Amino acid sequence: MKKSLILIAGTALFAAWAGLCSAQSDAPYTEGTVWQITMVKAKYGMGDEYLKGLATTFKGTLDEAKKQNLIMDYKILLGDAATPHDFDILLMVEQKNMASFDNAREKFDPIARKIEGTPDQQRATATKRLEIREIMGNKLMREITLK
User: Fold this and answer.
1) Does residue 127 sit within a domain?
2) Which of 56, 57, 68, 84 is deepest in the core (most CB within 10 A)?
3) CA-CA distance, 94 to 71, in Å (whole number)?
4) What is the longest distance spanned by two Cα atoms in the chain?
């Protein structure tokens, strides 16, 4: 009798726990991939020069990261600034999920060395870019699909 009671109580507890685990979210969307977004303002007359640099470093690095399945995709959007203080270039990198950011330096530093050179060379490139563009901000955003 005692064993039956324990078995019934255990089964009821397991069923309640399983029901909680399978409960669905009330959110009106499902979560998708994560996008790193950088808003850039090219200095006057320097947009093409900045994009030429990105063709080597940004594209090269992210093509290699994509081959290694470290990122899903990347995009560059170009448009007019809405105000004098607005960005005109969006750099977007798509990641599978938030966990893909774990140990990012270990994953991306070897690629950066391969594409851009030593850390000193990378710093020199970054310093030179200060002359032709301004980073207006960064965002980490999740893509969603409405239900």
Assistant:
1) yes
2) 57
3) 6
4) 86
Quote the CA–CA distance of 54 and 116 in Å, as a whole number. 11
* Count: domains in the chain: 1
Q: What pTM was computed for the model? A: 0.80
Name the token pair of 65: 């990261």
Does residue 79 contact residue 88 with C-beta atoms inside 8 Å? Answer: yes
* Per-residue pLDDT tens digits for 42-59: 999 999 999 999 999 999
Torsion of CA 90, 140, 109, 72, to 10 degrees: -80
Q: Assign 7 to helix, strand or coil.
A: helix
What is the span of the domain harbouring residue 87?
A: 29-146
pLDDT at residue 15, rounded to an integer: 52
